[in-house]
Automatic annotation (TrEMBL):
It is a multi-pass membrane protein. Keywords: Cell outer membrane, Ion transport, Lipoprotein, Membrane, Palmitate, Polysaccharide transport, Porin, Signal, Sugar transport, Transmembrane, Transmembrane beta strand, Transport. PANTHER family: POLYSACCHARIDE EXPORT PROTEIN GFCE-RELATED (PTHR33619). Belongs to the BexD/CtrA/VexA family. Residues 147-210 form the Polysaccharide export protein N-terminal domain. This is Soluble ligand binding domain-containing protein. Transmembrane segments: none annotated.
Length: 779
């Protein structure tokens, strides 16, 4: 049994040594443990844990590998620190450089994990200032790159940089020992713990002068200076109503806000205005976060020392501000503060706030009651714990307004002055427009019960002094229409052979020539005769039948639009003018021919009777290489199957189509091949042979497959026409093969029964069988 245990222990040691080799740590132990990265140590710890070895076994195996006790101790210390970081504790004895790195890592971790984004964060938004400690975009970290504060107190693990310049150059780095001293090679230990950096500087330089004559003296040629290098870490404890109270390891330059941010700040029942800092059992400072939030004042944001205690007491009194204020929140109050101070915390009233009075809901020993606070009481009113103040909104109406709209130069809202009349309001609005309809002005007014009424006013008689002016009341609205507003918009329209046909505004004395000129004049093919005017029938019904609703006149005018026109040519509102085109005027219409002709290209149609044969004649006829059977006639983007052989034989053949504008005739070169596709064993193209039958071409493609539907074989000719196989009494008639044709053998469709069809057929068969059996039995 003992032999078995020894064997297991030996295997575990081998595993440990293998882990060291895998992580690449065995080589660096011999150099410097400080050079090993945290990632390598974490990987080693993970694999060691998976191997099942204890810490003692790991250390023993490292010693057996030849590592010294100092290296093992450092490595163990690094492992402990990383384990503590993983658990959120940074209170481990480490070197100053490691502590500085550890503190930075702790702050980064605390920022991302201290406050979870849950319902509690949303609740904290209701309290003024608490979001300062939940906003991850705000970085409250100690600044380690600032000059050392003059009142900085030195302590264990602080590092001092001592530099001597001039005739001699010397630099020393001295760390404060646990005994509070620093050691410089040429001097006995110097006690600096508890001194400020300035006091330590004077003491060190004083001791150096005993070794360097003339140091820091005028003309001495030697100068010394003492600065702070790496700083120590300190422990600060947060107690009371913090989100996460506890002890935090922070750099020695950390201040109160740094630690408050690390612990998540006060809780919902913690005070933000009476945060206390204790040092050596004594209260040394009270911090009011509102000073920083409202004025940026950090006078009480002191730098902390080791073992300081931050106490967050319970919140004192709280009041709520609701309604039309800039920052409605729950605010903490101090003794002696007034309601005016609380409104200042909230940023004051909004623009539409009703400030004449404020509603207060206050808790009494037995119930609640409502108090109305008037404006002049705000500055002296003392809030009480639990008060809820609500600021209302002003009414959405104007208290001294009259309105004028319509045919005045400046319509809008105006101040209602005492004794203001209608004429005065019109004068304030810069007067009436020239087209104002003064005989009937509408005055909209509210009755005492706020019901509206309309009052008709003859403004013309008031302006002439025939009637007394009207006094205006609050919220009166005056409507003055123009003549243009009271009639339909007068227009005339023109269409046909003009350059800018459309609808135009009617003006008095407008003639047909005037309208044509406004419409850009005649177009190229316009006819100046037989211009039609369609006019609405109103008062003049001479020569108009009862059934007629539109009067139409036909006129002739000068094509050059010169000379006066008779009254007959004067236009009336809503006339419609139609300008015709010359009878034989047409734009040129083009057709084109491409391919194997002597003169390909576009051609103009001379008349409406030209046909395909005429186009071929214009193009100089066909070349010897032309494939007439594959010629394509294209109209409107679509191919029309035309047999050119018949066209050239007989001009009157139906294939000789009359040409339209845009038609194109495409005559290709002879292909001299036949293409076979579809259900054949070898789809291919073969040379064309005059007189060869379709079945022979199928043989060239290896014959048809078993799934071929030979009865449906069809041929597509080069000109787009198609022909298919026909059969009568088991006699098949195959299409003729022409040069450039394509033969296609389709597949035979296999009909698949649907489930419903299979069920129906099965049921029918069963029924038929049942009937047959019944009949047989009967017989």
């Amino acid at each position: 049994m003992n032999l078995k245990k020894q064997l297991i222990r030996f295997i575990l040691k081998l595993n440990f040594i293998a882990i060291f080799g895998f992580c690449g740590i065995s080589s660096v132990f011999a150099q410097n443990v400080d050079e090993i990265s945290d990632e390598q140590i974490q990987q080693f710890m993970k694999q060691a844990q998976e191997s099942g070895m204890t810490e003692e076994q790991l250390m023993a195996a490292a010693a057996a590998k030849g590592f010294g006790s100092a290296d093992i101790a450092k490595f163990k210390e690094r492992m402990m620190r990383l384990q503590a970081d993983k658990k959120g504790v940074g209170n481990v004895n480490t070197t100053n450089t490691e502590r500085k790195l550890n503190d930075t890592l702790n702050f980064q971790k605390l920022k991302s994990t201290t406050i979870k984004e849950d319902s509690s964060v949303i609740r904290r938004e209701k309290y003024f200032g608490l979001n300062l400690f939940t906003n991850k975009k705000i970085v409250f970290e100690p600044n380690l790159r600032i000059p050392t504060p003059k009142n900085y107190i030195l302590g264990t693990d602080d590092e001092l940089n001592i530099s001597i310049t001039g005739f001699a150059v010397q630099n020393y780095k001295a760390k404060v020992s646990p005994e509070g001293t620093i050691q410089i090679d040429i001097l006995s230990p110097i006690y600096v713990s508890g001194l400020t950096i300035e006091q330590a500087r004077e003491r060190i330089i004083s001791r150096l002068k005993s070794r360097f004559a003339g140091l820091n003296s005028t003309g001495g040629g030697l100068y010394a200076d003492v600065t702070l290098g790496n700083i120590r870490s300190i422990s600060v404890t947060v107690i009371g109503e913090a989100v996460q109270p506890g002890t935090f390891t922070v750099p020695s330059l950390a201040n109160v806000f740094n630690v408050l941010y690390a612990c998540g700040g006060p809780s919902e029942i913690g005070s933000m205005r009476n945060i206390e800092v204790f040092r050596n059992g004594k209260l040394i400072r009270t911090l009011d976060v509102y000073d920083f939030l409202l004025r940026g004042d950090q006078k009480d944001n002191i730098i902390l020392q080791d073992q300081d205690i931050i106490h967050i007491p319970y919140v004192g009194g709280q009041v709520s501000l609701l309604g039309e204020i800039r920052n409605p929140k729950i605010f903490e109050i101090k003794q002696g503060e007034t309601l005016k101070d609380i409104f200042a915390f909230a940023g004051g009233f909004k623009e539409l706030a009703y400030t004449k009075s404020i509603s207060l809901e206050r808790v009494t020993p037995t119930e609640k009651r409502i108090i109305t606070i008037v404006q002049n009481e705000i500055a002296s009113f003392i809030p009480q714990k639990g008060d809820i103040y609500t600021v209302g909104k002003v009414l959405n109406r104007l208290e001294n307004v009259v309105t004028i709209k319509g045919a005045v130069y400046r319509e809008g809202n105006y101040e209602l002055e005492k004794g203001m009349t209608l004429k005065q309001l019109i004068n304030i609005a810069e007067g009436l427009k020239e087209d104002a309809f003064k005989e009937r002005v509408l005055l909209k007014r509210e009755r005492e019960n706020l019901e509206p009424e309309i009052i008709n006013v003859n403004l013309s008689e008031i302006l002439l002094g025939k009637k007394e002016d009207i006094s205006l009341k609050l919220r009166d609205t005056v409507f003055i229409k123009s003549y243009k507003d009271l009639r339909e918009r007068l227009t005339v329209s023109i269409s046909g052979a003009v350059n800018k046909a459309g609808v135009y505004e009617f003006v008095d004395n407008m003639t047909v020539s005037d309208l044509i000129m406004i419409a850009g004049g005649f177009s190229d093919g316009a006819s100046a005769s037989k211009i039609e005017i369609a006019r609405r029938i109103k008062g003049d019904t001479t020569g108009v039948s009862k059934e007629q609703s539109i009067k139409i006149e036909t006129i002739d005018i000068d094509r050059n639009l010169i000379g006066k026109e008779s009254k007959k040519l004067m236009l009336k509102p809503f006339d419609r003018i139609y300008v015709r085109t010359l009878p034989r005027y047409e734009e040129q219409k083009n057709v084109s021919i491409v391919g194997e002709v002597f003169y390909p290209g576009p051609y103009a149609l001379r008349d409406k009777t030209e046909k395909i044969s005429d186009l071929i004649y214009k193009a100089g006829g066909m070349k010897s290489e032309a494939d007439l059977g594959s010629a394509k006639f294209i109209r409107g983007g679509k191919t029309i199957g035309v047999d050119l052989l018949k066209v050239l034989k007989d001009r009157n053949d139906a294939n000789n189509l009359v040409l339209n504008s845009g038609d194109m005739l495409e005559i290709p070169r002879k292909k001299e091949t036949i293409t076979i596709n579809g259900q054949v064993y070898n789809p291919t193209s073969v040379p064309f042979r005059e007189g060869l039958k379709l079945k022979k071409y199928l043989d060239y493609a290896g014959g048809v497959t078993d799934s071929a539907f030979v009865k449906r074989t069809y041929v597509r000719y080069g000109n787009g026409r198609m022909d298919r196989t026909k059969s009568f009494l088991f006699i098949k008639s195959y299409p003729k093969i022409e040069n450039g044709s394509e033969i296609f053998v389709p597949a035979r469709k296999k009909y698949k029964w649907t489930p419903a069809e299979r069920i129906a057929v099965s049921s029918a068969m069963v029924s038929i069988a049942t009937i047959l059996v019944t009949v047989l039995r009967t017989l």
